[in-house]
Amino acid sequence: MKGSTLVVIAGTLALVVGIGALLFPLASGLTVTLLVGWGLVFSGGFGLWGAFSDRLLMHRGWVAFFGLVELVLGVWMLANPLAGLISLTLLVGVLLVMSGLGRLMVARRFAGGTFWLLVVAGIASVALGLYALFAPLLTAPVLIGTLLAIELISVGATLLVLGVVLKRRTEL
What we know:
By secondary structure, the chain is an all-alpha fold. It has one domain (3-171). It has helices at residues 3-23, 25-53, 60-79, 81-109, 115-134, 136-139, 143-171. Helix 3 packs across helix 4 (81-109) and helix 4 runs antiparallel to helix 5. The longest helix has 29 residues, at 25-53. The protein is globular. The relative contact order is 0.20.
């Protein structure tokens, strides 16, 4: 199978999963929460294992502490996925506010054609972030799943276009 065919298959799969995530944002958000929870459990477990198995490791106490924190957070997210989803929504809200403020600061340095795009994007990010922070019970069921859907659809469309371009170039 050619590489271009694999890229088209990956793009199609990402697009289909992205549309599914857009149709079912709560299920998508809970899936992300569970994946993050398992990631924290494994990361925390490996951190603790490394802290206690390697006697030459510098700052073993800190490694063990953060490993334990990750492990506890992961178990908590797996045991309480809805509360974990709300926590992730709050984290995303903070990141959106910070990202939007960064865009606004960069926009101050630009004058001319693209200035307004940065201002609009910055204001939109700050507004969405503040909405997520001040209404997490309203935004948690849809925000994470919708953001995942948008990313998967974007990646899927990009991979489809790339796969078609690669296929055309190999046919020439």
